[in-house]
Amino acid sequence: MADKKDTILELKNVVYSFKTYGGEVKAVRDVSFDVRAGEVLGIVGESGCGKSVTAQCILRLNPEPPGFFEGGEIIYKGEDILKMDNKAIRKIRGGEIGFVFQDPMTSLNPTMKVGKQIMEVFVGREGHTKEEIKQKALEIMKLVGISDTEKRFNQYPHELSGGMKQRIMIAIALVSRPSVIICDEPTTSLDVTIEAQILELLLELRETLGTSIIMITHDLGVIAKICDRVVVMYGGKIVEKGTAREIYYETAHPYTSGLMHSIARLETNRGEKLHPIEGTPPDLFAPPVGCPFAARCDYCMDVCNKLPPEEYKLSDEHMTRCWLQHEMAPDTEFKRTKGEAK
Amino acid sequence: MTIVFFLTRLMPGEPFTNPKLTPQVIENMTKYYGFDKPLIVQYFQYLGNLLHGDFGFSMKYTNKTVNYIIGQTFPFSADLGIRALCLAISFGLVLGILAARKRGTKIDFFCVIIAIIGTSIPDFIMGALLQYFFGIKWGLLPVALYKGFEYTILPATALAFYTLASVSRIMRASMLEVTSQDYIKTARSKGLSEARITVKHQIRNAIMPVMTILGPTVASVLTGTFVIEAIFAIPGMGKYYVESVNNNDYSMILGMTVFYGIFLVTANLIVDILYGVADPRVRIGKK
Prior knowledge:
The structure holds 2 protein chains of 2 kinds.
Chain A: E1 7-20, E2 23-36, E3 40-44, H1 51-58, E4 67-76, E5 79-80, H2 86-95, E6 97-100, H3 114-119, H4 130-143, H5 149-153, H6 162-174, E7 180-184, H7 192-209, E8 212-217, H8 220-226, E9 229-234, E10 237-243, H9 244-249, H10 254-261, H11 302-306, E11 311-313, E12 319-321
Parallel strand pairs in A: 3-8, 3-9, 6-7, 7-8
Antiparallel strand pairs in A: 1-2, 1-4, 4-5, 9-10, 10-12, 11-12
Helix pairs in contact in A: 4-6
Chain B: H1 2-10, H2 23-33, H3 39-51, H4 66-101, H5 106-120, H6 123-137, H7 149-179, H8 182-189, H9 194-206, H10 208-222, H11 226-231, H12 237-246, H13 250-278
Helix pairs in contact in B: 1-13, 4-5, 4-7, 5-7, 6-7, 7-9, 7-10, 8-9, 10-13, 12-13
């Protein structure tokens, strides 16, 4: 769907860590990807792999301190967000890039009317009268599928259901018509029917407003449903990225494949066991020298524990970091190269 | 109230202990006040009078009613109390908010010190210290009595200190708690300035725990505190309250207790109503 369109947002070799009493946590290690106009980019990974931190890096929403950037660039429309002062970043937040958080139950201020919370996005931005802003708020509420907007406008968050609150969150993220919205597991705390509605809504909004969406999730089902391109993260690193098709049908990393096998499917036979990925994610206080996934990988070789895998470019979009792509590696279902590293 | 009524009667001693009184006089007085009747009859008689707002005569200051004494003394206590409360709440909140926003800096440290001093130094020492420094050593403010604005500053400060300290401590803790809430992150993601986030999103959510302690505090501060009033020679209610217990002045003890009780209930009611104002989740039945 998204053939080489304009890149709006680009992360280049971002390294982000947290200083804690226990030492430095290397949450994001050398992450690079780009977001293009009108596309849906998925970021997948299990809990603690750094996907939320990566997303919050973009708007610099991580608490600083203890968090800090160790390196990299985040280029938004030609400007490096990391070099901006607070005022400029505030313009980007809400105005240019919207953010939808994981838990709508706790992400709205309980003591403020939802309408006001939507209108608040325009505080400090010029060029609108109060009446215009209210009209915009009502309009966006309608757009995200809220009926009876005048009444809802004056309600407090506790008077709304979970799905409704998430719609409000989306409305907040979208009201100023940003060019990108970042959705951090927007459906994790909602039930499945509401999840489907919210995903549908996001896709619709992408069509009508042309907004790019960064969808962060641990649910490959969600990715399959809506994403054009996918970034798979593990242990703070990108292990594979490519178009959704490539990720699903030409899987090149054992972790990605492990994620897919651990999903329950309708056609799973009774009595047949799921195949979880054994073990736990690496300790990010002292990340492994080699491949972060080595300890849990069924295909682990000697080299995997000693050296971080190189990047292998498999197609224009498809990239993976796995020694199995090396020319000297044995032939496996993952091997898709003749072995030349990028 | 019932408990106090019977408790006072159980206390050892009699109200009329002046050695100059002859047995005959005491008997007459006992009859006059109805103490010869069974306790239960006295109790209902008292209840009946109470319904008319009549607390009866003081037994110590025999020519004054309890109502009259309260009427004379309460304004002083209340005046002092209101000043103290305004001081305590405004400064307490400001300090708490500042401390939370500048967490870990010198400002925060300063606020914590104030809070520790306020909660750990008893008010009679605080009062005496203030008198010594401002009244005697530097001669800036009058030491005692209650005759105008400059007279009110020292006692109000002394009285406010404890409340101020606890308000600021609670406010600081609750501000910090609110800061880590998800909706603050939402507010930041909307591109709001830190100042606006504090004012519009944090304070209103952080203020609830402070309001909880204010109910009882308001009642006790307004109805007078014996120690402060004694130190600063203020003709307030606290003095009479304590004296009445010493004198076995039954009607005074009861009257003041009931008055204090009414005040406490009212203060708590107001706090509950304010809860509804601050937090929409508490409001009920409004459609």
